[in-house]
Amino acid sequence: IVIAAIVVSILLVKVILEFWALFGSFPKALSGFREHYWGSIARTITSLILLLYGIWVLYCIFQFTHGDSWAANTLAGVTLAVFTGILAFFAWKIWNTARKLKQAEGDSSGLYEKKEVWVKYSLFYESYKKDYWWLFIPIIIYMFAKGTIIAAGDGHGLFQALGQLIVEALLLILLLWKRPYERKSGNVISITIQVVRVISVVCILVFVEQFGIAQTTQTVT
Predict the structure, then answer these.
(1) Cβ neighbours around 205 below 10 Å, total
(2) Same domain (yes/no): 124, 191
(3) 103-139 burial, b if ≥16 CB within 10 A, otherwise e?
(4) Residue of 12, 34, 75, 220 with fewest CB within 10 Å of its CB?
(5) Which of 32-36, 161-165, 169-173, 192-196 has the lowest mean pLDDT?
(6) Do 197 and 160 belong to one domain?
(7) 94 with 169, same domain?
(8) What is the pTM of this model?
(9) Residue 184 lies inside a defined structural domain of this protein
């Protein structure tokens, strides 16, 4: 229902823009938006998929393991496959473009310097240094792995904690090793956040019941 509502809304806005342009006084400020409407919508949807992918993986895997409705399971499977397919498609396109640029020009800086390439793909790597454009690929893998571990390990605290610790630690090592963000503040913030995540998972790991450690606090009612 939500997906259908979004599709209808997108089409409705396009229809309104076209009717406005044909029969009304269409403002020049919106002419560029109207001309590149589908490109803007595609970019926005892709950005949302990239932003929400980890949460969606968690929801879909949880639905597979705990859902009792075949319709909900089917919808979760289809949407997860579509979202994963979209991200995989863009990853392949960017990698292939970078490979061709490197063959033709000696490096992949064209991903940043060529306007047509930048407009199409920059949302995936615009925050990274030119040599680390590829970092969005392990980030996508990280989101998938984390969501899968949390959802599939529901009810198994030790598995969840150990799995998360491995995933978070690997990402922290990658960030410390490469420091991939263009801005120094970006590296500092991302590394700090990742350190906090690792520490949080370690704390969870210490206090899961499987270790036989009693709770340190108790709520009295």
Answers:
(1) 17
(2) no
(3) eeeeebebbbeeeebeebbbbbbebbbeebbbbbbeb
(4) 220
(5) 32-36
(6) yes
(7) no
(8) 0.82
(9) yes
Q: Which two tokens stand for residue 216?
A: 């340190």
Q: What is the band of 92 on the pLDDT scale with cuts at 50, 70, 90?
A: very high
List Cα–Cα distances, 153 to 145, 160, 195, in angstroms. Answer: 12, 5, 23
Question: Long-range contact list for 194-203, CB < 8 A, 24+ apart?
Answer: 194/168, 197/168, 197/172, 198/165, 198/168, 198/169, 198/172, 201/161, 201/164, 201/165, 201/168, 202/165
Which token pair is 109? 């800086």
Looking at residue 208, what DSSP letter applies? S
Q: Are the beta carbons of 63 and 76 closer than 8 angstroms?
A: yes
Number of domains in the chain: 2
3-state secondary structure of 181: strand
Alpha helices of the chain — where are they, by DSSP H?
2-23, 31-35, 37-66, 70-105, 110-113, 115-125, 136-152, 157-178, 184-207
- 58 & 118 share domain: yes
pLDDT value at position 215? 45
d(CA 177, CA 115): 30
CA 108 to chain centre: 23
